[in-house]
Amino acid sequence: MAWSRILLFSALAPSLVILAGAAEWNVINDSRITNRDTTPVLGRGFSVATGEVLSTCLITLPSHPTSDYDYFFTEISQDSRSNVGGMFQVAAGGVAAPVAGGITGGYAAAKRTGTKVHFVSATMKIDRYYGSVDETKSPLVGAAQMLLQRNNYMQFFQACGPNYIRTIRRESWLTAVFKTKSTETVASNAWNIGGAIVSPFIGIGGHVVRRFSETQQNSKMTITIYAFGMSMGAANLGGNSMGGSGTLVVTGMHEFSNVMEIGFKSMQDSQGGIIKSVELVPWVNNAAFQIAADVNMPLSRNKYSCIRSSENPAVKVDIHSDNSTCYDMDDVDRTNENLNCGWTTHDIPVEKFNTTLCVNVGSEDVVAKEIRKFNLIANSEYLASIDSMIRQEMMSLNVHMSCVTRLLDFHSSYMDKKVFDHKDPTKNFDYLPDVLTVRSRLIFGDTYVNTNLGTRALMTNATNYKGLLGSGGLLHERKARAINRKIQSFVFPCYRNMQRKVFNVEQGMMYYKHWTQIDHCRKVKCTFSIMEWPEATSTNIPDDCTKMADDFLALDPFLESYCPTELHEWATKAIRSDILGIDLPHVAPRPPEELQED
Fold first, then answer.
1. Is the peptide bond before 585 cis (omega within 30 degrees of 0)?
2. How many CB atoms lie within 10 A of CB 144?
3. pLDDT tens, 180-205?
4. Half-sphere exposure at residue 101, Cβ-oriented, CA atoms within 13 angstroms
């Protein structure tokens, strides 16, 4: 492999020894956190169950991060170009596609034209880690603390999530790619380019730059700058110590040092960089949370026992009769029905105390503190998944209704026009649906209705399509009713039972029982968006969710692809028209009579 590397400085972190088989659930480094459409922040909530980032509930004072710094240059020859992606995967931490694609494409183009090309790259990279919350100086946000002090655990977890982000790892890198193109062999020039790149940093002399300029008289050079995770506000764009312009624009080798200096300055911001991973911590393990929520508060109750003989404690007695049978919490064969002294095992325990059989023998901890914390963690994640599921279904319904409204306003001459696919812009034109197909799919479901009636006529005649509407009406109306049934029959009963007061503790059920032990919550099928709560009939009272009708199973991907609805020709051509058929702006409007749909 013909590639060279000069390492100027590398502050390598100590090796992290991971036990075999240990699951690092609390370190997230996949698309849930690296997606640039989300904004992970120290102290912000996060749900492992849903992958959602929630509100910031800690007033954070971050610690100072540690950094690794690399600067190296790489020569990529014709022979090694097939592995260029692997080179930059290692060298630049994985954000390799733009650089590797440019180099590979350059060699492919040169091969077609018969020219000689050569690539040399210079890369500066900073890996910033140990940027963590200083929890000794980071209190809860006032509103979040008030929720906990009022024992509103459910509301707290809905706002702040079950976990919070304690540590963020970031990476910034800048790569300059130098491409020389000539009709003669240019391999000898590569080292001259390398010398020009390195000389400003290690002081090997200006003669290298001069020699580079002399040998490039019959060649053409292109410089491309790739920068990722830069904080340009930290770079002092007004200028630099070398008198440069303070930008990342380079027009020649004389400005290259300026670009690298600006790049280095922009990497000094501890809050800048592409997020590579985060460390999560459950709120239950946060000291400020434990104090505000009074997690260590005892969950205790009276302890009852059957009256026993003073001569033989194994013998139970009745103060009024020696023949009575008595069952207390020590009896393994007790049931809720035959229990005389103690507490039942119902969702909400019922106190049993027979004055002739029982005696109060003190108090007992209902659930051990450690188990209470585990229950709180598990219940908070489960509630987060339910909350996310309902929010996504309601958002999907809103998109659906908005899309239908727009489709009904399309001019009738557009009914056979192909619709643009937002998820797959390069999709084969022949496989794209037309406006009429999309409209019918979203209004009536899978049953295709071949009508190009306008808005008023379609809605007026919709009641005549009883056989096409299935049970319930228009598709979005059926969806709305299905969401409401799930909320009324599953979500609300589960939330209500989870918020119950137990042993004089408001919402104590969050501590007392795991969600799998609560009858109204352990309906796991209801947490999936493809499941619905069936409608009750005179002969069938449902007690769990079932699969939704086929009309809804592929509905969300369909909405993502074709809503908001745009014609394919609008997205791929310069001609632009509005939904009423008026070409904008260079074609005169159509006569008013052509705009009438019904």
1. yes
2. 25
3. 876 554 444 444 555 555 544 443 33
4. 5
pTM (2 decimals)?
0.74
Distance of CA 195 to the CA centre of its chain: 44
Angle between helices 369-407 and 153-160 (to 10 degrees): 60
Q: Cβ(455)–Cβ(437) under 8 Å?
A: no
Find, among 126, 131, 129, the residue nearest to 227 by Cα.
126
- Residue linked to tokens 């199973």: 553
CA 493 to chain centre: 28
Q: What are phi and psi of 214, to 5 degrees?
A: -65, -40
In sequence order, which ranges of 346-368 are alpha helices (DSSP H)? none
Residues 483 and 394: beta-carbon distance below 8 Å:
yes
3-class SS shares of the chain: helix, strand, coil, % to 5: 40, 20, 40
Cα separation, 479 vs 337, whole angstroms: 43
What token pair was written down for 14?
Answer: 């100590």
Q: Count H helices, E strands: the chain?
A: 19, 16
How far is Cα 140 from Cα 134, in angstroms, rounded to an integer? Answer: 12
Q: Above 70 in pLDDT, residue 356?
A: yes
Task: Tell me how far apart the alpha carbons of residues 281 and 335 are, in angstroms, rounded to a whole number.
Answer: 40
CA terminus-to-terminus distance, the chain: 71
Nearest to 221 by CA among 176, 160, 179: 179
The rounded distance, in Å, linking the Cα atoms of 43 and 277 is 14
Residue 452: how many other CB atoms lie within 10 Å: 16
Higher pLDDT, 553 or 390: 390
Q: In whole angstroms, what is the distance from residue 285 CA to residue 281 CA?
A: 7
User: At 27, which amino acid appears?
Assistant: V
DSSP structure string for 135-177: GGG-PBPHHHHHHHHTT-HHHHHHHH-SEEEEEEEEEEEEEEE
Angle between helices 435-444 and 369-407 (to 10 degrees): 130
